[in-house]
Specification:
- This is Peptidase C14 caspase domain-containing protein.
- This protein is of the alpha+beta class.
- 37% of the residues lie in helices and 12% in strands.
- The chain is built from 9 helices and 8 strands.
- The strands form 2 sheets. Strands 1-5-8-2 form a 4-stranded mixed β-sheet, with helices on one face. It has a 4-stranded antiparallel β-sheet with strand order 3-4-6-7.
- The two termini are 23 Å apart.
Length: 283
């Protein structure tokens, strides 16, 4: 079974951690830097880079985001098609690939499971809402809540939101949302997620790479069934060599060094409050 988690789900998960407890998340996935919103970046370059301004067309606050998604997907498609082989110190050669799910693949999966061929970039969230109903993520529910409110109020649609719901009617949406009320503080949350203004003190994220990087898989040449995550493998090696006695900072720094030595370009990151940087690693 494939389970998809967004940064919003991670944020909500961390917010539920009891005051005197902590949660450690190790994410060996592409673009995993900064998955916990507002967690302080202790090791990494994801939040320190200058962001390029997004181009937006008049009357559309979504165009910049859409362009970014398409650009990212195209880049991932190119990277996915690149096959690399790395030779380890013992002479063994391993095949290296990237964990990525091109957007078109997701759309094709949705078409196959729904029998609906009319699914484009702008209709992904409504389709997910239709398929999963009460099990849909909070972000999808908030998105549909805004659409329903606009329909009920008869508000003009300057950015074309109504065109995104296709054949879904008001009654159908109301039925799906029944008992699943999602509060929306501001319109921006629908596209970018909620920002509660609190520091993720109880959440610790160790990412396999930076926000603009992919996280590699590796496998012995000719044996793809033995594939493993390069970062996950590095963590296991470090824990075994240190007998489990290592701090969060030491673990990430050693993983960076080991991956670089093995020929991987991805750079793991650490996101947490200052008090956990030199704390013993627990997972």
């Amino acid at each position: 079974m494939v389970v998809l988690f967004s940064d919003d789900e991670f944020r909500e998960l961390v917010d539920k951690v009891p005051k005197d407890a902590r949660i450690t998340i190790i994410s060996d996935s592409c673009h995993s830097g900064g998955l916990i919103d507002e967690a302080k970046e202790q090791i990494g370059e994801s939040t320190k880079k200058k962001k390029k301004p997004k181009k937006e067309a008049k009357g559309s606050s979504r165009l910049g985001i859409k362009d970014f998604v398409l650009e990212t997907v195209e880049q991932e498609d190119e990277e996915t098609n690149i096959k690399e082989y790395i030779e380890l110190e013992n002479g063994d050669k391993i095949h290296v690939g990237n964990k990525s799910l091109p957007l078109q693949t997701l759309i094709d999966i949705l078409k196959l499971n729904t029998g609906n061929d009319d699914i484009a970039l702008g209709k992904i969230r409504p389709t997910l809402f239709n398929v999963f109903g009460e099990d849909a993520s909070s972000k999808v529910k908030k998105f549909m809540k805004v659409l329903l409110t606009k329909l009920q109020e008869g508000e003009n649609d300057p950015v074309g939101l109504m065109g995104m719901i296709g054949k879904l009617t008001q009654e159908f949406i109301e039925h799906k949302l029944n008992g699943n009320e999602e509060n929306v503080g501001r319109k921006q949350e629908v596209y970018e997620g909620a920002n509660k203004g609190s520091i993720a003190d109880n959440g610790i994220l160790i990412s396999g790479c930076q926000t603009d990087q992919t996280s590699a898989d590796a496998s012995p040449v000719g044996q793809p069934e033995l594939a493993y995550g390069a970062f996950t493998n590095a963590v296991q090696i470090i824990l075994e060599e240190s007998n489990g006695k290592v701090t969060y900072k030491e673990l990430v720094m050693k993983a960076r060094k080991l991956l670089k030595k093995q020929g991987f370009t991805q750079r793991p990151g650490l996101y947490c409050s200052d008090g956990y940087v030199n704390a013993p690693f627990i997972c």
